Amino acid sequence: MFEFFFPSLLAKGFPFLSSAPWGAEALEKRVYKRAVRTVGDEAHRRSVCLSTKLYLPLYPTSNIIIINIIISNNISNCNNTLTIVSLSWVASNHHVLAMSELPLDGKCSSTSLSTQHTPSSTMTDNRIGSFGTVPTAIFNKAHELRRRCEGRPCSFSRYEFPAWLDKSREAVADLLNADPDNIVLVANGSTASNTIMRNFVWNEDGLDEIIQVSIIFAPLGKMTGYVGELSQGLVRTRQVQLNYPLEDDEVVELFRQGIQASREAGRRPRLGIFDTISSTPAIRLPFERLVALCREEGVMSFVDGAHAAGHMKIDLAALDPDFFVTCCHKWLFIPRGCAALYVAARNQWMVRSTLPLSHGFIPTADIEQGKVDGKLAQALASGKTPFVYNFEFVAPMDNFGYLCIPESIRWRQEVCGGEKAIQTYCVNLARAAGALMASILGTKVLDNKSQSVSACCMTNVLLPLKLDAGNGDETPLPEGWYAVRSKPGVQFRVSDWIMRKMATEYETLMPVFFFQGSWWARGSAQIYLELDDFEWGGRMLKDLCERVGDGEYLL
């Protein structure tokens, strides 16, 4: 069974409009092509049903479009209700039909998914990995909880919210195979990282070092520099330079060398920081082996798993890092922002303060004197740890997304076929999408021989732009490549110009960034996208690169 979902007809899907500037004729061809590809022949096109409603085109004409169609081999289950909509009306309202299939072990799952759209948005977004998106069912759940709170804000916040929060912690702990007592929820990955770094206890002799990879998320990299200032020089940072392509063995060895170099310099490597999947570029790191290396070397490990929950299988019980952070709003379909912070029980004594500090803080004097206030005593009596209690109520904020985690995980299982199906589809789509866009651009994807780098739901595609030093020594460019004159700030200027044009002219967005002397674009695969979306994206990038070559970014 395959499903095509149209914007306002079904409650499944995502509340943003997947639109593109194709025009009515191209739109109809795309929709009809998918119907033919899926159904196969005219006889089957007329034997489609959806429990109580049936939507299908009578003929592939220029003004009739499928609204919603479910393909079934069981004609007896079909009813006789027909709904026909003018394609011109659809085009004028910027609606586009989309279909995605979830293959399991090379076959198409009986579960399929497309987007539900809202009139307020016109984006075909291929960068969902940045900020995520939310299915209508989960969006409505958060709104329901918000309305419930507004009806009785004090009692909900004091007595209902903690119970809902416990269920969400347990759900995400189960997803990550972690002890719920080691998991708390915070606003976002940066809040989680700041919480760890600001609470970390450094040695007074000033010899501590943080060992971090060069492709670390930029704000986290700035944070490690800031803690050096904040600690008044008690800790400094040593960077492990990763120049790709690299195999996993090489990454692990380079990190080992970074630890050794720290010790040879008379320093003390205290904390290793690395990603599960980095941001720009999107690279799947051998984080499992890096955690094991840190443990072997007596270095604490901090894993930035911003792109982990809902993206890849994580087993924290087996991994056993010291600290682990993962965003729930990027890939798990949770209303932003929401992140899970894991702190191994052995390290929870360090994390004394939330950001901002709130009711759960226990002053050192109280600890020394054995004082326990009433709220903490009640929490401990209920079985909660001081760590969990500390993060239970930080400050009033819009954190209703926290409470949607169980609903989202259940929705992903029931509607999308579960985590394995989602991950299989998205990884395969990302790899195919990267290859297709690179073919259109005449370039390549960022990968290594073993393809471990690309074992994720994102892809990095080289753009056909060459930084020209302007000294006359540049070799002739291949056909379809364009020179960009080198000048201060041009790397960011070109990236920003391309992204702004994507948003304003093409109603889409992919991160464009400068890495290792070249410009790259990052695409994010999702269950509501398919290869056609990336074909269009590749042609868009080709057009924008040509315009960069013409100097439009200078205007």
UniProtKB/TrEMBL annotation:
Keywords: Pyridoxal phosphate. InterPro entries: Aminotrans_V_dom, PyrdxlP-dep_Trfase, PyrdxlP-dep_Trfase_major. The keyword Magnesium does not apply. Residues 283-346 form the Aminotransferase class V domain. Signal peptide: none annotated. This is Aminotransferase class V domain-containing protein. It comes from Trichophyton verrucosum (strain HKI 0517).
